[in-house]
Amino acid sequence: MKTELSLQFIAELSSNLGILAGQINKTLELLFVENCTIPFISRYRKEATGGLDEVQVNNIKEGYEEILEREKRRAFILETIDGMGKLTPELKKKIEAASKLNQLEDIYAPYKSKRKTKGQKAEEAGLLPLAIYLKETRDSKEDALKKAQEFINKDAGYATVEKAIEGAGHIIIEEIYNNIELKDDLRVDYWKNAVITSEKRKEAEKIEDYQKYQDYFEFSQNVSDLKDKKYAHRFLALRRGMLQEVLKVSVEVDKEKIIEQIYNRFFSDNSPSQEDFLRTCAKKAFSLHIHTGLELEIKSELKKESDVSAIDIFGVNLKNLLLQPYLGQRAVMGIDPGVRTGCKVAVIDKNGAFMEDTVIYPHAPKNDLAGTAHTIKTLVEKYNVEHIAIGNGTFGRETLQVVKQTLAHFKLNKVSPMLVNEDGASIYSASDIAREEFPNQDLTVRGAISIARRFQDPLAELVKIDPKSIGVGQYQHDVNQIKLKKSLGTVVENCVNFVGVDLNTASYSLLSFISGIGPALAKSIVKKRTQLGGFKVREELLEVTKFSKKVFEQSAGFLRIYAGENPLDQTSIHPERYQILLDWCAKNNLKITDLLENEDNIKRLETSHDLKQEIGEFTHADICKALRAPGQDPRTKFESFSYREDLTDINNVKLGEWYPGLVTNITQFGAFVDLGIKENGLVHISQMADQFVSNPLDVLKVGQEVKAKVIEVDLARKRIALSLKTDAEVNHDKGVSRHQGGGRRNDRSQHNQNNGGGYRPQQAPKGNNPFAGLKGLNLKGR
User: Fold this and answer.
1) CATH number for the 650-754 domain, one of 1.10.10.10, 3.40.50.2300, 2.40.50.140, 1.20.58.480?
2) Residue 300 contacts residue 416 (beta carbons within 8 Å)
3) How far from 61 is each of 491, 626, 743, CA to CA, in Å?
4) pLDDT tens for residues 428-449?
5) Residue 402, SS3 per DSSP
6) pLDDT at res. 748
7) 560 beta partners
8) Model confidence pLDDT, tens digit, residues 121-164
9) Which helix (H) or strand (E) covers residue 418, if one does?
10) Are 702 and 238 in contact (CB under 8 A)?
11) Which sequence spans correspond to the domains of the chain?
12) Fold (CATH) for 118-314
């Protein structure tokens, strides 16, 4: 870390990230020398990093790893070319001076082919002098032909003058397209002036659902625009259409202009007698090599940029989803709706422990409303259930109506029924984690338990599910899967550590995301917890098998013990600071318990200049904050949300009306909003605010409550267009209008499949009374 080369990397990172070199240097030491985790560094090493947050620390880590990969490639190229005996001092200097990976690849390109190129074969046949002659000569065509006769080489395959000149041309062509400076200049020109175009392939109509790409059948946009994050989704759509052989996607430039530039750059001073020949060389070098190479490079780079943008949005959505308001310690009944096979019911207590399960049959063909009502009433009273969470899948809203009517019938007014987004519940039900947790329950019961638990504490339950299955992403199957998994894993880890976990109740799945722990050690913690009957102090973690002092350092501050022996264990204060606080309390004739939630004593500590100097300003501020609210969850408490009760399906949606809703998913082109019916409405980016919006995440987040105006309804395609603008205009034309730039209809069709998003509990509108005809039945005696 202290080498000259490392300092060079640090300076490069500082320039790229806009972070001071000293902060980067210390962060890299913590990451790669002291082997600290990102959550630990961002929470407990603020003094060292200057207060960098987890995003900045992660950017430093990823940026440094990218540099290391580039340098690894540079070393490989140097070693390989040196092994060929072709590493001249000038070439070595060029390789060492290259600052970008694509520059290194341009330099290496002539050396990495295992097969000899046409130019190399011609050069070995002795045609290099002829190539030089043809580039520089002022002789006439006749004299040039006579000169070429000297280079006929039948044994090498150049038996005629024409073949010899053709071979010399191959040498010239390779000299052009291997010119690094030319490639760099054209690369800049392409990114500035090139245009991406797409058109429908002739055989496209043989592909199923080819029409969903109709907005790209005659499409064009500047490459520079597509590199912008707000348009990144368009390239992913283009690429998907290209891979499905529906679209032909090309990079277009003014080819004649570029060929002229190449000719003037290499041959402008040559004799007119060789102009046709040299222009042909320039044209072939461009068309067969330079353009195809830069086109592929641009498509690859746009794919990377689009991946980064899509993954970033997925990460922000996931973070907002995981950190949404939580219910806390209250008993919950979870219902996984079903029709013919019934609705699976499961009850969990205030700590999330599974208590009982059963099945109710409120829908056809059984229509057992009386039995359903009796079961719900019995379970509510038996377990003191305060909330009923109902999956929002098939017959979810109908099930909610039955539950609401049951509660009203028995005057159970303190019980609140809600719809909960069930995306991923089926994935969890069939997972190894679910089988380990509930080996004696079938898939459907596990699903009902998961629905109840995600309502009680969404973070604790959703970490058990692959983030891709939660439904808050965009083109998640098209982006780089390794990067997506790594990025989303980091998001989950940061969220879990931000909130912290109860060491004595957290599942091993939740514990595994704590800084420095992992799945194996998490299981060991749960095993030890069972043996001890619960941890009483954080230091008991050191008794866990393979729980080293280093792991303790990285994890202890995120593991909370409530009602334990040490009152500081319930806070986010790290144990490494306990003794300093004890010493300060002793000097001030106080006990640690005198600090907790005692504003007068906390203010004394807050104004202690000596203590602030000793532990640092950032740490001092964090300690004071923790003492004011020990054990406080940084998430906000759950608040009920209600939809308009007159809205039951898309046929009830009225143009020009305002409806309350919840944001369920955000993409680069807009946001999907749940209005309380099956179909989500779309707020296009152009309709998000009265002012211009360049990034939807600047104004909205998953789980946010909004009030949206219906501006378009397309009953045939089951689409609703919404606006958040105060002066939104209603479009009375049939169908959903397209927005400037194209691709909207395709965007919508691509994302209807994954716009579920939030788990946020939801109240459905009232429907017909399912208890009609039940009057007089003795439900109590059932």
Assistant:
1) 2.40.50.140
2) no
3) 15, 28, 36
4) 999 999 999 999 999 999 999 9
5) helix
6) 37
7) 502
8) 999 999 999 999 999 888 888 998 999 999 999 999 999 999 99
9) strand 416-420
10) no
11) 4-112, 118-314, 332-456, 501-571, 573-630, 650-754
12) Tex N-terminal region-like (1.10.3500)
Amino acid identity for residue 597 in this structure:
E
Record the pTM: 0.82
> Residue 472 and residue 126: Cα distance in Å, rounded?
63
* Contact status, residue 450 vs residue 461, Cβ threshold 8 Å: yes
CB 345 within 8 A of CB 335: yes
Structural element, H or E, at residue 247: strand 247-252
Q: Is 681 helix (H, G, I), strand (E, B) or coil?
A: strand
463 vs 471, residue with greater confidence: 463
Beta strands per DSSP E along 438-573: 501-502, 559-560
- Say how far apart CA 152 and CA 162 lie, in whole Å: 9
The one-letter code for the residue type at 539 is: E
Q: Which residue, 190, 191, 143, 151, is CA-closest to 168?
A: 151
- How many residues would you count in the chain? 782
| C-alpha 19, offset from chain centre | 23
C-alpha dihedral, 629 to 633 to 638 to 639, nearest 10°: 30
HEC readout, 202-226:
CCHHHCCCHHHHHHHCEEEEEHHHH
> Which pLDDT tens digit goes with each residue over 271-282?
678 889 999 999
Contact between residue 453 and residue 460 where contact means Cβ atoms under 8 Å apart: yes
Question: What are the b/e assignments for 702-715, b being 16+ CB within 10 Å?
Answer: bbbebebbbbbbbe
Contacts of 408 (CB under 8 A, 6+ apart): none
Q: Does residue 686 contact residue 643 with C-beta atoms inside 8 Å? A: no
